[in-house]
């Protein structure tokens, strides 16, 4: 270990010199080696053991000051840390991180007093701004999240639910004037159903959108008269009926509803909150640690509170990667990894019948999925037909889509046939393909679904019908369906059987209601259902559905899992060396537990319950949870790097460099950037951790392995797919036949109620709260 530490010190100097030339020079507050040695000598002289906690006063070389409990070169216990810029923290520490109860004070006089977790304001706490505003309530990773009460500097007050720093859910906003609103919020603005009471006795009860009345609503006066109708800022969309009370002879029958927008709502503006200039988790902790690089005149990089190197906090989140040099550096890392895995005598560790596996490797380069459909491909004409049809369907003018659809829109007979002759027609353009007919199923419903999912029509057509060709996946799925990807990976097109089309049309109304009610639903998003009928003797029909691609991301998906909660046939036949980024792994291949941050995990549990209940009611079974993992920190050799580990680099190689991993400051920047919030939602772009698991040797079909305590930082993607298989006679026969040969609980084909219960139980075993 001493030899390894010496190698690390030497190689870090080269890495830092290289990193500084790329990312700009940053530094770490340090003390000289002789000071460190002197501290060690004092520890030995005083008889202190490793990990012993003792009181210490530290004036660090960069001017920071710490006094309090100390252990192993880190604040640990209760202590006070004063930064040179005037920021101060007083409270509990855990190995260099603010953890527990404490108080953070900014130079401007802003204070936060409450709970901390891992350097973040997290838990219950009170924030007092420099302008006098206060917030008392729940925090998660520096953001207001949960129930809280905020008193604004102008005298307004909000009492209700927050989500990622903004009002979301149910809440009451009281203006200083006495007016108040009680109802639903979304992204910091009034949105949904709610009531606004004016101090003069007027009241509006109805729906809101972007802080204004929108949709059905009623405006009431104190004398009992009221106005009922459809509300909109646009006078052309405003319509309704005025009902006088009859008790007052001077009632105004000519009242204009636009007065509510122009006059009554003029004083009812939500006050913006004060922005924090720097967050506690962005404050760097000067580390009391030796550095050989000082002797060579090279300043090492500054270390964040959690001990991770930080080189350039302005780098974008999606560009942060961890690379490692090859050669001797790689060999050093392998030796270090073996030291973690072995018992000290070169043997693989085995505890309680659990064998610790070899290091997990991911491919260095990931090839793009699918084969481009170019001229000469057997499905080239089918692709042209598909693109022509979608361009016609989406581009065709239609009525303004309202989210409130009539029952007739969901009728299975609601479909439109269009003929596409090669020479063109009054409604279709000329084309080079053969003649075909195009069918649109429930066009108004899918147009409205695209609006609900915030899909822009022009972008939708460009993705599917642009100059770039589609890509066909190399092999069809188990069902015999073929899959096609758009050039930008945003959409996936799947060919369907007639039975699947019938199932979707049968459940379309319930599906629409479900995805409209639950914005964070994990079920597949459907954008269009179509059919191409080729003219000729065969009269071939090709039905297909357009879906969102769950793995459309700037991140490389390193691992993919298709999980059902059953064990029969749920293992890939590939070895670890043969597995690449496109391999779909199954239940018995799963070697991780997915750990989500507390509020995300709670939302995940609620949503998986809702989705399973919906699928059970629709008699759907055999669906899966598709999970994709992007590992944030890997080496060039493809090894995963556990958090907190240092990656040695080959000494003297100017080409090797250490690209910084995601720092805490970058995470803060991501969370506080509204664009970053938009990119993170349940199941999409979710920062999380995974804990590696290992199965016991005597349990051949153990679904969930034993946790090993080995964690990795990941970005997660997940969703429920294959939701069009009902429990028909084929599945009933499959269940009866396989139940004779195998354990009935291990097979996929089971009753929807049993399937839902088993699926839910399994998913909640492999997902857990990150504590």
From TrEMBL:
Lineage: Eukaryota, Viridiplantae, Streptophyta, Embryophyta, Tracheophyta
Annotated source species: Davidia involucrata
GO cellular component: plasma membrane
UniProt xrefs under PANTHER family: PHOSPHATIDYLINOSITOL 4-PHOSPHATE 5-KINASE 4 (PTHR23086:SF29), PHOSPHATIDYLINOSITOL-4-PHOSPHATE 5-KINASE (PTHR23086)
Pfam families in the record: MORN, PIP5K
Protein name in UniProt: Phosphatidylinositol 4-phosphate 5-kinase
Top enzyme category: transferase
UniProt domain PIPK: residue ranges: 372-767
Record-linked SMART domains: MORN (SM00698), PIPKc (SM00330)
Record-level GO BP terms: phosphatidylinositol phosphate biosynthetic process
Region (Disordered): 640-660
